[in-house]
Specification:
CATH architecture: 3-Layer(aba) Sandwich
Distance between the termini: 8 Å
Order of helices and strands: EHEHHHHHEHEHHEH
Radius of gyration: 17 Å
Helix content: 40-55%
Largest sheet: 5 strands, parallel
CATH class: Alpha Beta
Strand order of the largest sheet: 2-3-1-4-5
Structural class: alpha/beta
Number of helices: 10
Number of strands: 5
CATH superfamily: P-loop containing nucleotide triphosphate hydrolases
């Protein structure tokens, strides 16, 4: 059961390329937003949570069920639990890179508690198998996981700024600020929690420069390198 992790510098299109790779390989696709939606589904009907895009209700149901089993089998048994604070699992998983690096969020939990929760959730997703996981330290958490491909996406700063400017329909200054702040949070998150340089190519099996590839080409290369 193949597991792919994709980490990308801000503005390299990691989510978009990850979705394309997942489609090519017929794997599930999981990013932070989907994990938060699945965690939210623990307390509401699943059909109100799963959006109407490429994500299927089946995936949402499986993730919600997996997270429910995770909560039942761990110390984090529900809202108000000391492991999660008062916000619940969705609030913990919903922390941005910058919030997690700064120890901020909707509720106060320690860095160790946050990392333990994140690690357990990522490993539970990987145990399900046949999945593409975007970011959240998954390349470190799953560094010794069998049948896994770890991918890093990079590009020159100017190319990343242009990508965000076009994708989000913002001006040059706004795009530059987004890339700078997002990348700072991403680097701080991995340095603080995992003690690594997230852009160190030795952490990955495959590094791609998205300024020299279309998203379809990048997805094709990832699919070709994926474990079978």
């Amino acid at each position: 059961m193949a597991v792919l992790t994709i980490s990308g510098q801000a503005g390299t299109g990691a989510r978009e390329i990850g979705r394309l790779a997942a489609q090519r390989l017929q794997l599930d696709y999981v990013d932070q937003q989907i994990l938060v939606e699945a965690a939210s589904a623990l307390g509401v009907p699943i059909e109100t949570v799963v959006p109407h895009d490429e994500r299927t209700a089946g995936l949402g149901e499986r993730l919600a069920s997996m997270l429910r089993r995770f909560l039942e089998g761990s110390a984090v048994a529900g809202a108000g639990d000391p492991m999660l604070g008062t916000g619940g699992l969705d609030s913990v998983l919903g922390r941005t890179y910058a919030e997690a690096a700064a120890g901020e969020g909707p509720q106060e939990i320690s860095d160790d508690q946050y990392l333990a929760t994140l690690t357990d959730v990522i490993r539970a997703v990987a145990a399900h198998g046949d999945v593409v996981i975007i970011g959240r330290g998954s390349q470190v958490i799953l560094k010794d996981w069998p049948e896994t491909l770890h991918v890093l996406l990079v590009a020159p700063l100017e190319a990343r700024r242009r990508y965000i400017q076009q994708r989000d329909d913002v001006n040059e200054e706004e795009a530059a600020r987004f890339v700078s702040e997002s990348e700072k949070g991403r680097c701080s998150f991995h340095h603080k929690l995992f003690k690594i340089d997230v852009n160190d190519p030795s952490l990955y099996h495959l590094t791609l420069n998205t300024a020299r590839l279309s998203q379809q080409q990048a997805a094709q290369l990832i699919a070709a390198a994926a474990p079978t």
